[in-house]
Structures are given as C-alpha cells and as structure tokens.
Amino acid sequence: MKTLNLKVYGIVQGVGFRPFVSRNALALSVKGSVSNKGSYVDIYMQGENSEKLTDIILTSPPERACIFFWEKSYSDREEYTDFEISESEKEKGEIFVSPDIALCPTCEKELFDKNNKRYLHPFINCTQCGPRLTITDHMPYDRERTSMKSFPMCKECEREYYDPSSRRYDAQPVCCNSCGPKVYIIGKDIQDKEAISYARKALNQGKILALKGIGGFHICCDATNVQAVKRLRELKHRPSKPFALMFKDVREVKKHCHISPEEEKLLTGWQKPIILLEKKEDSPLPDILAPESKTLGTFLPYSPLHALLFSLPDHQNISPVLVMTSGNPHGAPICRNDEQALKYLSGFCDIILSHDREILIRADDTVTDFYRNKPYMIRRSRGFAPLPIVVNEKLKGDGIAIGGELKNTFCLAKKNLLYPSPYIGDIGDIRSFTVLEHSIKKMTELFEAEPKWIVCDKHPLYHTTRIAEDLSYKLDIPLVKLQHHYAHILSCMAENDFNSKVIGVAFDGTGYGDDGAIWGGEFFVCDRENYKRVASVMPFMQPGGDLSSKEGYRVAASLLEEENYRKNPHICDKNTYTVIQNMKKTGINTVLSTSCGRLFDAVSSILNIRQASTYEGDAANALMYYAQLCKDEKYLPFSPLTVEEDSLLRLNTTNFINRLSREEGDKISLSYRFHAVLSDMVAEACKIIREKYNINTCALSGGVFQNKLLLRLCVERLESKGFKVLIHSLIPPNDGGLCLGQAYYNLKEEI
Ligand SMILES: [Zn+2]
Ligand SMILES: [Zn+2]
Fold first, then answer.
1. Protein residues with C-beta less than 5 angstroms from the ion ligand 2
2. Ligand 2 center from residue 126 Cα (angstroms)
3. Which domains occur in the chain, in start order?
4. Which pLDDT tens digit goes with each residue over 242-292?
5. How many C-beta atoms surround the C-beta of residue 29 within 10 A?
C-alpha cells in the first residue's frame, strides 16, 4: 500500500511530539506508525489524509518542538491496522536534545489541586514540561536512559504513560507521590512535605538554605530580610555582586520592576531565564540585594519544588521574594549532588533541602538583559543549551571548540549546526577544569559527535589550551589556535549567520594578542577566513599583570601624567604612584596592553567610584551605573578622537582620560562623558576604516559590550553614519560566547 514516510529532525523528543502525531493521526483516520530513532522522529502514514497530517506536523508542531529540517518520501508497505507508537530504536545520525522545560501552567494547577493524585508532588511533569538535558544520559530520550530509571512507574502512572488521551502519554519523567523521587533535609530524618515545610520555616527565621534544583544547587534566603542577606554576603565573601531574585509570581515582579511585554513573555515562558529588569524607584526591596545597580536579576519559579517553597499550604507565609543564587564556591561550577553540596556549601548555609533524582548534566540559570526588545544574553545555559545555532547550510564541519578560560562554555559542531554547551565556569579553578573535561566527554557521547578537529584560544597559559592539546593528542585530530578577539567577532558573525567582510570591534577585558601583548580594544577588518588588526585603543603599560585587572587604580596610576595624578591623589599614595611609574620605565612586571576593560576600571578609580573590583566587572558596572544616572545627554566632545601611530589607527584614549581627570564636574556627568566620547571614537575609527576598505558592516562583541549604555551609544552613532551593525542576542558578547566563534571559523564552505 502507498505509504508516506516523513522524517523530522530537531527538538522532537521529550516535547510530546509522538503523542501529538498520534492524536492527529487518529483524528484524521490516518493509519501507520511513529517512532523515535534517536536522531529523528520517523513517521509512516497510510490513508487519504496523509498529506494533510504532514502539513499539520510541519506547520504547527507542539510549542516546545523545534524542527531543523525534514525529509519526505513514498514507498510501498504492508497495510497498517491502526496508528501506533513504536518502541524507540536507536539509529546513528543527528542528535537533538531538548533543553529543560519549566513547570507548565496545567501541571502547576494540578500541583495545588487537593483532588489530584499529584497534589503537592515536587516532581510533577508532563509531555510539555519537566527536566530534559539535565537528566539525560544517552539518546534516544527514553526513561531507561535518564536518571528516572531508578524510579519504576506505579500502575497508575504507567497507565497514563501508555494512554494516548493522557497529558502524560509517553512523558519520560512521569511519576507521582507514590512512585517518584523524594525530597529530604540532609542530615535530618525529615522528608517529603515536612522537609519543604521545615525549609520554609528556616527561611522565615532568616536562615540560609541550600536547595537542589533542576541543573544544580541554589543558595537561598529571604530577600526582604536585610540581616539574612548581609550574612549571606559575608559568608560567601561577596560584598557587592548583585544577587538573583526569585519572585513568587509575575504580579510580585511588577511591584518592584518595570517590565516590557517582550520581557514578560520570556520571564513567564517555558525557558524561565533570569532577566535584568529595571528596578522601580519606589521598590521597598533593600539596596543590599544589588548595590549601585539600576536593575534586578529577576526570575520566576520553574520547578514544582520552587512553587512549593513559595506556596506549600502549611499555614506559614513566606516572603514572596527570595535570593536565589548559584550554589557554588567562588569560581567553581555549580554543585550537583549531596556530596558536593556538603563539601562546598555547608560553610554558607544552615540547612540543605535535597532530593534523590540525579542531575546528570549541570545547567546554571541563564541570565539575559534586553536591548531593543530582544534578549541580550549574559550567560546562556538552562532552557537554552543545548539548542543549536544554525548557520548557512553551505558551511559544514564536525569538531569541538573549547572556548575561553573565563565563563567557559564549549561548542560541538555537527554539519551546519553549532551546539554551545551549558555554562561551565572559570577554568582557572581545578574543579571547573575537571568538570569541563567531563562535560566534553559527556556531550560528545550524548550527541554522538565524531570530531575531526579542535579549536582553542591562542593563550599559551590557558588551562583550556592544555585540555585542547591533550584531546587533540588523544583523538589524533588537528588543533587550531585562534586569536581571542577575532573569535569574539566570529561569534557575533555566526549568530547573525553573516559570512562576509566586517569591521569587527572587540572591546574586552583580557586576551592574548598576536604580538604577545594584552589585547582588548581591537578593530579588525575580517571575514571567516582572515583578520587584519587595523586599529586599537592607545597602548598603555599595564602594571602588575593579573593584579591590575582587579585593582583599577594601578592602571589609573599608569595612565595619568604626574600633574594629573596630583589632582587625583585618592587613586593611590604618592609612593605607589612613583613605584608604578618606575615599573613603566623599566618594564619590570608590566605588560603592554590595549584592553578596553582596563580603561573602564581606571576611569572608575579616577572618578573615585571604585579603586578595586570585588568581582569581575565590578568597577566597570559601577561606572556604568553612574553614567546611566545622567539625565542630560549633553557632553563636552573631545578631539582628536583618533591618531595614527606605527601605521595603526589608535583611539586617543590615554590623552582623553588625562583630560577627563583634570575636569571639574560630578561623577555622574564625567562617567557619562567617558561613555559618550569612547563611542565617538568607535564611530570615528569605523568611518576611517570604511573609507579605506569599503566595508559598511560593523560587528560589536567582547565582554565590555555587556555595558548597555556603551552598546546603545555605539550602535546609535554607527547607524547614524549609515553602518549596518551586527550585535549579539542569544549568544553572550563576553567570553561565554567565544566557543561559537571558534567553531564557526573552522567550518568549511561547500562551493
Ligand atoms: Zn506540565
Ligand atoms: Zn506513580
């Protein structure tokens, strides 16, 4: 009998795809079968409505599904008697894994419905929601290959699992109060609802709680209790870095934050990232949560356990706003099991609420800002990883890009699909190093990747370089080392699927330059094959190597001429200034640098905002905060904006910063002026480069472009000069996005 065969590739597993096909087939009286092949969903259709069913499948798939491509063919097969869901059979090919999906509204309703059998069940889920990536061991995505395999279904769950009319038909993590995982307080004989109630009581008493979630542990306390927040800051040695806040619901968010319709849609959607929302002036939330910041990192409960933490009916009222920060020791990856939680978190929490469903792959919370009504990613992880970035199908390759040393993520390339991993962390820490090695192995297996090449950063001392060298040796595949800032620009090009010449502006903290100097304020003329450095920040001597990336006053002391230092004695004592000037002269313990990030630190010091940073980006964030307070966008321009030096175009930054340091004015207008003039310099340099190379597209990348004020001012100036400007959206401009650029570079173009 004539049979239509449809193969659908994409996120089609664990999103209710097979039941969706089967339900529609029944409704259209189509006979046949549907099965998971690990790499795709394979559908056979017989009957006059087969084409119609195909249409429905391709045009209105389930909300969480992402179809990347499909194949249709016809054959002659034996007649089917009904429409069946066949057992998964594993076949080799493309592997698409769904990100984790936040608790859906229907499950949330059932969670608080006394008459439902999953009343108050902390692991309730359905075909439309629940953990995916973090519990998956192998593909195809079936219960026996997830961490749910240790929880055999009870009779009733099994019935729902096999019933096509049920919301849990074929839902792999399905479970209930009698057969599912259990929550408990570590070290105490307290389980289930009592454990959650115990944790709620502790929060009410101002205690600090560690909580096992979907992709790892959180540390949590009452955000309205200043004493509790203060204590957490002291214990975590985190004096000023803003904390993420989990709000009970969106109504509560609106009391404290401004929110646009686009932001609300993402905040309440299935991915539930942390969004930096502008704080309302009259919000009563204490400043200690996010000192000197105009925004609050805001998110909503995304697991049933979160919902119960806020709303368990146990006659206690708990704060509708909780601090909810990643449960990790400084610089190390988020903890994912009890052993790690006890080892690394007991020092800064009073009790640990855990559960016995294993987290197989870590996924930190995703953090995003918004720019022009689109997400502007800061950290891409849970809910987004491992969705691929799809580039032009003429570009193909199979390989691994290791990423950078800080904010590490790595990326698998398979044909024209690039899969950035969840967030790993700073690889300088030995624990992150181990996790990166483990995660590369895990993801390579899960995606059945067969890498033919490997890319890493050019920095000779990065731990990631060592991992890449080892891996290249073990797998016997070639290793490519790529310049840091060029990789930033490539990541922006890849995200915009742009494969032509651009003027790349990479503003960053630190990266290894081709001349051995520290780069970080670079202009390239480049395409996917080559780059040429055509301009940069004015080189300066960066004293004290790594220390000066934490202590901005050192760069300030290096930049300022003596008379200007005398006007700004607050940056350091006279003795220190002299020592730094001598270091400059002798070159001892100083390196030549064009880092833009360090300029922000230096200006922050000169304007007496921060002499040193307590976390990465602290001084620069505080400088942006004051600049954003500037109501009047008028400022004194500066000239010349650029100068020629050693046949390179240079931004006239050192002279400008010296001028700024002599000026009278408050820190608000002066910090705004710094942003504005720096943007003038960017636009001017791009204009000069355009005249010479005839390129009209600019790509902006690098960690400094997390600064939204600088981003806006640069984009506005460039656009007003007629440039097309490429910026990031779903891939971070910081080092978390490097891996994508590294992978993009190594794809080969089919002609
Ligand atoms: Zn659900
Ligand atoms: Zn059950």
1. 154, 157, 176, 179
2. 12
3. 2-85 (3.30.70.100), 183-355 (3.90.870.40), 368-495+737-749 (3.30.420.360), 502-728 (3.30.420.40)
4. 999 999 999 999 999 999 999 999 999 999 999 999 999 999 999 999 999
5. 11
